[in-house]
Amino acid sequence: MAERVVVVGAGITGLACAEALQDAADVTLVDRVPVPGGVHGWEAPDTTDLVERCGARLVLGETAIRWDGRELVVIGQDGARRLPAAALVIATGTRPLGRAELGITGPRPAGVVAATVATHLAENGLLVGRRPVVVGGGDWARRSAHHLLEAGAELVTVVPHGAVAMELRRRAGVRVLQDAGVTAVAGDVRVTGVELASGEEVACDALVLAHGTVPLRNVDGAVWDGERTVYAQPLSDPASVDGAKAAGADAAKAIRSLLGQEDG
Prior knowledge:
The protein is an alpha/beta fold. The protein is built from seven helices and 18 strands.
């Protein structure tokens, strides 16, 4: 009987990993979201086919919380359960840098959110602010600015930490402050503004953190060098479907090696 491998993350990377492992292991895909495909699923025309081709068991709408090298604990609406496995693949994607990582000082009012959260809420018609400041100049900055405007934001001010895509400059409702950086946030209960490196103050009602990419690792026991764990989280910015698929294939090779199998 083939050994079980659990892949946490049913996005393009996780699906590609499962497809590459289908002749080598019994693969289970776990994702807290109730549908497969992940952030970039809509960009890949073959996502539905990839789900069917991967041949994996899908455990959707359940969150992976702990890995001890032998079994993964997941929790859903019906409570916690254990999934024994010979190896774990972490394909949970990436996140933008946090406030502390960016060195943004000041009080801690409501309204400082990661671009991943702001984008997810905006996709569902919920605004984190009508006049937000977005810190960043890459994929998440573009994505969050777009969805915030689509959800009804009046003005999105983008403060890049690097080059900004020309599409942001051309988009109505976007103001780009080039060669600037946010150093502090202001506000008591709610964000009221930010301070730039130049000393200028910019009024806003939310601060969206969209700069850089770091691995999103929130499974206890697999955060750093987890036992029998392979990480499949490409850090390219902007991200791409091809890059996600390549990361999944590379993870599958690493799992084969971990299981003592020849690469297929």
